[in-house]
Amino acid sequence: MIQVNLATWRVFYIVLSVFVAIISGISGYLLTKSKLSQIPSIPMQVQESHSLVSLTGRVIEKPWNKTTESWIAGGGNYYVLDVGDLEIEKRSAEEGVILRDSKAIAFESFAEYVGKKVEIKGEYVDSKPYQPKSAYESYPMGMDGRPLPRGAGFKVYEIRILD
User: Fold this and answer.
1) In whole angstroms, how far apart are CA 100 and each of 2, 63, 76, 140?
2) How far does the chain reach from its first CA to its final CA, in angstroms?
3) Which of 128, 117, 119, 116 lies closest to 153, judged by CA?
4) 30: which DSSP letter?
5) Cα–Cα distance for residue pair 120/155, rounded to 1 Å
6) What confidence tier does 6 reach under pLDDT thresholds 50, 70, 90?
7) CA–CA separation, 81 vs 134, rounded Å?
């Protein structure tokens, strides 16, 4: 009669179980990967859908200062469309909306419209959370102790002089 130590069989069984589990996991992964690679891919072009809004007013240039409006505008001088008392959807400046550049209109081009009455077409953009670059950086904070978001305004796709 052959005597076999039970501890040896247990070790062998555990090693064999681990080996089978690893092989099963790898084969399942490879099978899933091969099935996914066989799914035909349809090239899709995602078009930005813009529901263009039209606003009229006078373009003004404002210098950077320590106000919430200036913080929202960014780190330097900025341009605002003064809409007067006109009711608009989202004000981002005291006078109206902060003008934001787009692929169609460069930021620098707003300078040629300063003081002129214009019609702009574009879309409202919301502020984004601000991530401080340094622990020693100074920035305005909200009531929750977090930095105020920045970047709100009106992204301009078209601009034309009215006067």
Assistant:
1) 86, 15, 13, 21
2) 110
3) 128
4) H
5) 9
6) low
7) 33
Measured at the CA of 126, the angle between CA 120 and CA 130, to 5 degrees, comes to: 130
Radius of gyration of the chain from its Cα atoms, rounded to whole angstroms: 30
- Enumerate residues 6+ apart whose C-beta is below 8 A from 91: 97
H-helix or E-strand containing 151? none
Token reading at 138 = 């100074």
Q: What is the pLDDT of residue 118?
A: 93
Distance of alpha carbon 148 from its chain centroid, rounded? 16
Q: Please give the biggest Cα pair distance in the chain.
A: 110
Tokens at 82, concatenated: 């003064």
φ, ψ for residue 52, nearest 5 deg: -65, 135
